[in-house]
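Before relying on records like the one below, remember that each one covers exactly one chain. Contacts with other chains, cofactors or solvent are not represented anywhere in the record.
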Amino acid sequence: MKTVLPNLAPALLVPALLASGATVSAPMTVADYLALSGPPPSATFAYGSAPSQFAELFRPTGPGPFPVVVLVHGGCWSVEYAGISQMHNVAGALAERGIAVWNVEYRRVEEGGGYPGTYLDMNAALDKLAAEASAHQLDTSRIVALGHSAGGQLVQWIAGRSRIAASSPLFHPSPLPVREVISLGGLADLRNEQALIKTSCGRDLAQLAGRPSASRPDIFADTNAAELIPNGSRTVLVTGELDTISPPRAAHDYAARARAAGDRAEVVILPGASHFDEIAASSPAWKLILPLIENALGMAR
């Protein structure tokens, strides 16, 4: 499979990607995605009282410290779609490579999520990771946030949390820094991609960003990743060539905005891949995504 690397992806990534030996196969379907499975987590940690407020740890065997991937599932921010259990597929694959995975579940729109609940859950889940890191030999100085679809929006938001004003309900005084982000088919630009989010997920922006008020006239100021830049992060936007939920055009547009603001952003297009190949360790696309993760963690192979 030949990799399309527009927008000047870093040269150090190119040899690893082109040498992967991946080949094109039929793009994955929703049914293929729902059938994904993997090993159970090493441990589960509640970070709140709601049933959906928990994170799973996939800890590699042996002594640490281990680099960490914060993994955030998609599903259109809705309880209608599966999410965290399908992530066991890539979580197990990453743990086998010596990478710890913090697999985050969160409240979705119908269960107290959306604005502000889902964002508060991200804050709390990362606080819990910081609190548990020492006990489980997790090296939070080497951390990558990896999100798929709606999870891509959330991990891109995570990177910009430090820019949120203290007057916002989403403000965190000392967020765990996340400077490496990989968004797989993410839907991150709430302001500029309202039509795409509506057609792909049936979501109205009021559900994800709240409603304007006298104290908060701009609903995107604390929710839109594209407005929380520059923040010193590096974002790799990975999208399947055949992704119709978050098409390549959306990745290119976000990367251009991030670079114009002064942050680093690259786009990697996965030839022959759908929206679901992006998050399956069993897909040929994973052979292209794994080097991106390991490079972001500073892992030499």
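The two ends are 21 Å apart (CA to CA).
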